[in-house]
Specification:
The protein is mostly helical. About 85% of the residues lie in helices and about 5% in strands. It folds into two domains: about 5-80; about 110-200.
């Protein structure tokens, strides 16, 4: 007589041809082992099913989140395209501005302003000279007027001073100086506007 057992559950098995009897106790033991294994497997299946339910819920949440994220990514892509378009416009405008700045720089405004300032200084000096001459002339005329001598006046009259003074007055020096001062004021205003346009008004 001889017997053996299964590998997985160690179930009792008589060896065929060995006249080993198959007892009821052996049958019951085998069934108990099979039942215990079935219970263990069922418990594991229950756990797997519960875990599967949990995982399904988590997968549903992930899928929902993925949909939301896809929508957000789509919105971001749309925004990015909008930004890209706006950047293209700004870049094109920057090129235009760069060209306009090149044009302004080519005008050599600084050198021209320096020249205008030099001319203005010269003009101020010349006006000072004119004013000084006018003061001197006024003083000299006062002196001449104070002489009041008949013969000397006759001599002066013969020199046609009145006509000569009239000629000088006809040259309209005061009006011309006023015009020059007006031009100077206009130039100062234009220079201020240019300085404001170029660098915010810094001289």
């Amino acid at each position: 007589m001889a017997s053996t057992s299964t590998t997985r559950l160690a179930l009792f098995k008589p060896v065929p041809g060995s006249s080993e009897p198959f007892r009821a106790s052996d049958f019951n033991a085998n069934m108990d082992k099979i039942d215990a294994e079935a219970v263990a497997v069922d418990t594991r299946l229950d756990n797997i099913e519960a875990l599967n339910t949990t995982q399904n819920g988590r997968l549903d949440a992930i899928e929902t989140l993925n949909t939301t994220q896809n929508n957000r990514l789509t919105a971001l892509e749309t925004t990015d395209n909008n930004y890209d378009t706006r950047l293209d416009v700004l870049e094109a405008y920057d090129v235009v501005l760069d060209g306009r700045l090149d044009t302004i720089e080519a005008l050599n405004i600084s050198t021209r302003l320096t020249s205008v300032e030099t001319i203005n200084t010269t003009q101020n000096g010349r006006l000072d000279s004119v004013e000084s001459i006018n003061t001197t002339q006024n003083s000299r005329l006062t002196t001449v007027e104070a002489w009041n001598a008949g013969s000397r006046l006759t001599t002066l009259e013969s020199q046609n001073l009145n006509s000569r003074i009239t000629t000088i007055e006809g040259q309209n020096l005061n009006t011309r100086l006023t015009s020059v001062e007006g031009v100077n004021t206009t130039q100062n205003s234009r220079l201020t506007a240019l300085e404001t346009a170029i660098d915010g008004g810094t001289p």
